Amino acid sequence: MARDGVVLEVDAVSKSFGALAALSKVSLAVRAGQIFSVIGPNGAGKSTLFNVVSGLHVPTAGRVRFRGQEITGLAPETINRLGVAKTFQITNIFPQISVFENVRVAAQSRAHESGRLSSLWRLPDVEAGAADLLRAFGLLPKRDELAENLSHGEQRYLEICLALATEPTLVLLDEPTAGMTPRETREATALIRQIASARGLTVLLIEHDMSVVMGISDRIAVLHFGEKIAEGAPEQIRNDPKVVEAYLGPPED
Ligand SMILES: Nc1ncnc2c1ncn2[C@@H]1O[C@H](COP(=O)(O)OP(=O)(O)OP(=O)(O)O)[C@@H](O)[C@H]1O
Ligand SMILES: [Mg+2]
Fold this sequence. Notes:
Layout: E1 6-17, E2 20-31, E3 35-39, H1 46-54, E4 61-66, E5 69-70, H2 76-82, E6 84-86, H3 99-113, H4 123-136, H5 152-165, E7 170-174, H6 182-199, E8 202-206, H7 210-216, E9 219-224, E10 227-232, H8 234-238, H9 241-248
Parallel strand pairs: 3-8, 3-9, 6-7, 7-8
Antiparallel strand pairs: 1-2, 1-4, 4-5, 9-10
Helix pairs in contact: 3-4, 3-5, 4-5
The chain binds adenosine-5'-triphosphate (ATP) and magnesium ion.
Magnesium ion binds next to helix 1.
């Protein structure tokens, strides 16, 4: 484990797309077991930050360390194998196979990659793990449905199951409640907290819904035009004038 229990360290990361600075010298440290949220207006650089951490984008400058190991510029598969899983802003499941098969395939791919399929992670374990996850998200009764027949909210739950099936240390959730009903949003928030604490997971979360963010986060970083303008506990962020201005200032579209 890295020093001071820091699982993820983003150190002065910048990412430009041509002339556009999507991220400018962003630093943050996420500790083991924390739910750390990244918020900010549209286009602030939140998804870009996730893409840099998960290896989809190579940063223009700066470094990313996971459990003390530098992962800057490593391939997404390699970073995933080290224990970082990510969900996407847009739902990313296999629509034409069953709910159970979705999770089993995800779990098995991880077991296979890490060479555990023949030893520790036998098929019955994979299946039991998949069933546990579906049960936790209330999806077990729908295990044999085609994934495409689930409601939007259930599909988003399934996607979180797919990320967790790889047994990550750190999970990156990009707007997991997007498109959910208010009720699903409340349930999802409680579930994410509960599962993170039961599994000792560290969570980096992007979320637009302020009530979710304030209720779930141990710590919050605020991005605005690619820069981190504030970081702190929920109460600090709620009362930070810079944050209020970023959200309530003149529309930037
Ligand atoms: N692959 C890319 N190529 C060019 N520009 C990009 C690319 N990805 C993101 N951008 C730009 O970088 C900026 C930050 O985008 P990003 O998707 O990180 O924002 P975001 O905070 O996730 O926004 P949203 O809340 O709308 O999801 C935007 O101006 C976006 O248009
Ligand atoms: Mg985004």
